[in-house]
Amino acid sequence: MDALEDFIIRAKAATYAGGGAPAASCRPASHDLEFRDGGFRYLDSYFGGTDFSGQEVVWRDGEPVWAMSYHGRVLRDDLISGAEAGATVKAALSALYGQRRFLGGFRFRRGGHDYIDIADGDYRAFFGFEEIRVGEVRAYGLRYFGGLIRP
Q1: How many domains in the chain?
Q2: What average pLDDT does the chain have?
Q3: 38-74: per-residue pLDDT in tens?
Q4: CA–CA separation, 3 vs 69, rounded Å?
Q5: Which CA distances in Å does 101 have to 83, 114, 150?
Q6: 94-126 per-position pLDDT tens digit
Q7: How would you write the chain as a 3-class SS string?
């Protein structure tokens, strides 16, 4: 694992999944989470709540080097609330980051909710989705993609 991939995992674990403190909003109505270590800076900036869209960016020494975009939403609010989906996602991602990775091939169960993450690629270039199933019904879904940024 190289320094960038290690930083991405640590930043993700320390911010949304880890309940990190909000940063100052960088755009009107955005929710922002930030993590810094050495020459690296990570910013997760998103809009919305139950239905949401955002982007994560990593800079090394002031230059953007990696990004990921995502959009997710509750599909069946009769089966899962936004708060329940968020709690399940946070618990699942914390377990995934504990394995020192952040992409796909992961299943997690919490309180009758089945979290599934499937991805193709590695941190250099990837796409994937996460979902929460309640029984056999997909109640929440998110699509994501990203990778390295090069000049």
Answers
A1: 1
A2: 96
A3: 999 999 999 999 999 999 999 999 999 999 999 999 9
A4: 21
A5: 25, 19, 22
A6: 999 999 999 989 999 999 999 999 999 999 999
A7: CCHHHHHHHHHHHHCCCCCCCEECCCCCCCEEEEEEECCEEEEEEEEECCEEEEEEEEEECCEEEEEEEEEEEECCCCCCCHHHHHHHHHHHHHHHHHCCCCCCCEEEEECCEEEEEEEEEECCEEEEEEEEEECCEEEEEEEEEEEECCC
Angle between helices 82-98 and 3-14 (to 10 degrees): 140
Using an 8 Å Cβ cutoff, are 1 and 8 in contact?
Answer: no
- What lies within 8 Å, CB to CB, of 23 at 6+ separation is 32, 33, 34, 43
Domain residues for the domain of 74 are 3-148
